[in-house]
Structures are given as C-alpha cells and as structure tokens.
Amino acid sequence: MSSLLTESDLIHEADVVWLEPLDALDYVRQALDKTKRRNNKPPYARDGRMVGYARLDDHAEPDPDSGLYKRRVFYLLPHDRDSLPNGVYREGAPGEAVDPRTIAPKKPGTKTDRSQSGPAIASA
Fold first, then answer.
1. Which segments within 10-121 are labelled E, that is strand?
2. 44, 78, 88, 97: which has the highest count of C-beta atoms within 10 A?
3. pTM confidence score
4. Is 106 left (phi over 0), alpha (psi -120 to 50) or beta?
C-alpha cells in the first residue's frame, strides 16, 4: 500500500516502535503488511531495511480468511535518500514516503517539505 492510508486502516494501532533514531531520516516508506502476530517485530522480506513497525491493541482481530493481522511497517530501500543523498531522491520522494515525525499510532503520517525535498529545503 502507499502513503494513502486512512485512519480507518489503523484503528487498532496501540503504538509505533522505531528501530532507528528518526533525526537522520527525512522520510520513511510505509506499507500495510499481513503478519501472524499483533505485537512482536514482524518479518521483513523487502530489499533495504525495516526502520519501524506498529503494534496492535488487544481488540485487533485477524482477517477471517487468512488468519493474518494487517500492520503498518516503515522501511527504507537501498536507493533512498538516507543511503544515497545525491541519488534519485536527492529531490522528491517515493509515493509511499511520509515524514516520520508526523507518524503516531492511528495517524497515517503526512508529507512535509522535509520529506519531499530534504532538510536543506525545509529549513530555507
């Protein structure tokens, strides 16, 4: 999924766990993944690295067909701005990218000047 998540997608989020400090990250990618459990660190099968994930409250129920929970995962790919500051996302950002400083449980996060253009543009 893209950054176009709605609060209704996230109603059972209890908290967000960050695996890295946010001060060096202009943006993170977010997606809804299906996982077997509500609260532990979910498996990660993409390129790049997971930088955070949401834990669900006790009222969250798995999908009746798959038995899996939908949970938000935050990640970065090897060609993202944090790893390649002069790369393809030197300016701009991927569609699913949001500013991690705007993320909270049950809140999808938003695009900001920093997430879309980097800290130099945001502070200008």
1. 13-18, 28-35, 49-56, 69-76, 97-98
2. 97
3. 0.90
4. left
What are phi and psi for residue 7, nearest 5 degrees?
A: -60, -30
Helix (H, G, I), strand (E, B) or coil at 46: coil
Contact 49, 24 (CB under 8 A): no
The one-letter amino acid code at 56 reads L
Return the H-helix or E-strand segment holding 121.
Answer: helix 119-123
CA distance 37 to 44: 13
